[in-house]
Design brief:
- The chain contains 10 helices and 4 strands, in the order H-H-H-E-H-E-E-E-H-H-H-H-H-H.
- A 4-stranded mixed beta sheet has the order 1-2-4-3, with helices on both faces.
Amino acid sequence: MAERISFYDQISRNKRNSIFLIILVLAVLMVLGYIIGIVLGPEYFTIVMILSIIISLAYIWAGYYYSDKIALASVNAKPADKIQHKQLLNNVESMSLASGLPMPRVYVMENSQINAFATGRDPKNAVICVTTGALEKLDKRELEGVIAHEMGHIANFDIRFMTLIAVLVGMVAIISEIFLRSLWFKSDSDKDNRASIIFMIIGIALAILAPLVTSLIQLAVSRKREYTADATAVKFTRTPTGLVAALKKIHSEHAPANKHQINKAVAPLFISDPFKSKIQNLFSTHPPIERRIEILQRM
């Protein structure tokens, strides 16, 4: 018999892993900065760093403060109706009470898939959106499990956490791009020194690989946050059965999302990959559903 898992341990472990992954991104950023500082000089790197911070923060600021509006508009979601969606609103309210969080705004999007997502920069500005497919195909217990998972994302400040790593990954990409472009303007005298050439080659390799590495780390963090939200859902409902049953139904579905209805930029927000990718790898936004079910059944 498989060893039992405490949802408290699962939450703590995945949070620690997420923080470790962010430290890795910071480490890549520091190494990249160190090499660029050697190749181009510390003054130049300071200018590059300031520019990358300004550009990255300006880009992310809009996404952070308007993430809910952007996500809802992108899927054409509508506010849940008090009469038509009474069961959904009751489930969200009960999970709000169980979690001790403010009642989020509730939306419904027209889609035959079983799916849902949460967004918003903090619990006071949170939104939960559920597909019509989830409302039609899930029973009360299963829908409660899905809502608890989304409330888990809200409780764990996942939007804020993912925004932080997006800023860091964005900075790495911008610094790398500026560095590679700046090499065209480097004087020939600077390229004659053997040590300078070695560091330049290392810098070019890092500038090419760093954005890819940090993007993979960002996806790994996204997968860890899904495990954390699953465990938090068990904490709120005190049972994994509803979420397990919902994930089994999601796993048995075969219809991928309409590519024109769901933007790939918001796909990581959903409880499962809306594009139903059959290949799970380092580029996946979500962990395998089978693995999630296995872990939940051991809680």
